[in-house]
Fold AAA domain (Dynein-related subfamily).
Amino acid sequence: MREEKDLKGEYIPTIEEMQTWYKDDLRNQALKLYECDNNKKINGQVSFFNTFRKFEHIDEKTPLIPEKDNVYYEKYKVYVEEEIETRGKEIEEIENLIEYEKFFLFWERRVSRETNNYGHHGSNSATRYRVDCIKKLEKRLQTLLESSPEAWQFYYKRQLLDDIETQSKQRLITVPYVANAKQKVLDSLNLGVPVYIVGHLGSGKTQLATEAALDFTIQNKIQSELEYKMEDWFSDNLNATEKDAIEKFREFNNERRLYYKNILTNGNREEIESLQPLFISGSHNLTYEDMFIEKTLSLKHSFSKGSFVDYLNMIIEDFYEWMDEHREKLNKMTDEEQLQLKIQVWKSFSDLLVASNSAFGTEIKKIEREILIAVKEGRPVIVDELNTIAMQNLIALNDILQRHAGNTAYITGVGPVLIRPGFGFIGTGNLSTQMVNYEGTNELNPAFKSRFMTIEYNYVPQGITGSLEDQEFPEKNELFRVIMIRLADKNGNIHLPNPQRTLEELFRFSQLCRVTQDVFMGRLRDNETQKDGMDNLELRESVLSIRNILHVLDNWNQGEEKDLSKALWDSFISSITYPDDQNYILSQAVRFGFFAESEGWRVETKGVGEPTTTYEEIRTRPYYYVRSSIETLSYLDAIHLIFGKGVSRKTLPKGLIEIFENYDDNLKRIDAKRYQELDQKLSHLEHSKHLVEYLKDNGGEK
């Protein structure tokens, strides 16, 4: 195809070419950053380890295109980077406005609740105004993300990096399923309603409860501190506008959030514990006293606190007081009689003092436990495995569960106790089914359970049909997102052997995991896989939960020493002791393309009740693995894999057209008709229309 050039001899690239070159540049940058991070000395010190470190040679895989030095591309790249920064500031501005409106809404509701003696906060004109503002701002943000490729890129790159940081802190990655469940918990706690989270093993119920309780505490503290700071600021700036207030809110809000983030990262033990929820592990032996007051016997035999000088002064004072009262009788005695009497009185005072300040034997000592402390101090409390506690003991919680902050609750063995603001109650429990029964659990009394907001929390969503390439809505594959986050480095880049094949394998792995989860929960009949004749399936003990998925990924270690099939066998399937579970999961792994015969595997289908499978049974030859060369995907590749292709640009943006115009005055003299012919040959898209119109308006040939 003939290249077209402007009058200065520059090749005029299509927008698709420039976008492709930009992606290549990001991959090259990611590769250089990867090599730089690997080659730098640990802690910057000269040591045996640093001196004799050696590194694998990484070949340059990204094609070098001579046209990428083209001035039009350089200006396009500068434009994109500046536009990302501009749109990023716009996004942050909208988000700050949303935070400001939520801050005011929460304040309005608290005032309303306190006015109604901590009853239902209700709806009023002030709260409705804030709710409407939040909706408008969220719609404005969504419109921006749907209209600007750079805004979309900024927003989801930031989400990717946030996910990576979250994962590094061993917190739940906030895919939509997790975020929605956590928000339900927070909303209930803010309304003073206790929460009961139920789900299957390995779904992360306890982790969700812990994180939601932590967020609840921090949000309440930030809200309270911001209210004080804003009032204090306004008292010194009575002529300030709301625009000034919003900007000051941004400053205070960012400072407070950073403060608590630093505590969780670098705080001392006392600071961290003050934010964490109180925690009780449920068991059948747990009594209601264990939840509120622990009674213990203690041996008391030491002298009461106080210095000996103080005690001596007490005796002397009492002794002289006694002598003054009996002065007349003492004067009638001889000196010897007085001396003997004084000695006896002094000894009596001494014995009485020792007796009154000493105790010997045992006494009952009461120690406040987690739920009582949470009520009194205004803190969240989590009762893990709530449904393992005997129902007759749970009844003691009734009055607390139906009261709100600011009310007084009656606690058996303690009496009336004021519930402080900040108190919240979260219980967790395993969800039994006809196929899976968790030993030691009980079905909660319906009347008791009705006091809770019950939330079922299980495994994150994942499509189980189709390949990675033909996913219409990639963002709905939340389990695949979790896997990708696990593999990304701190900059959002991913380094894999043979990425095209490996990514497809990882996607099929996420599908396999979801199938085992659906079967374990008894929900496979709701999925399209029922068409394959897989009815009446069950897994009793084993499932590829998030915990087991991470074990497999860690064992695989990005394909360093073994492929994904071998890692799946070594870290999960080989450890399954229930034969039917193992045989079914192994057969499904084969169905999803693992353990291929061409790679030395042979998995034969076994019937129900047959013994477990050994490695020797399924291996036809010694295992030998050759790792492909590592290739690098940029953060942009990663967000396209996780969140979809985003907003596609079909036209040159007006701002970029203006940059091109300012660059080359000769562009005005390009033949418009000739450019139209070129456009047809090169399959230029809509952006050519802008150039044609521009040329016509500036004296080009008609």
Notes: The CA atoms of residues 7 and 666 lie 6 Å apart. The radius of gyration is 36 Å. The chain is about 55% helix and 10% strand. Residues 301-359 form one domain.
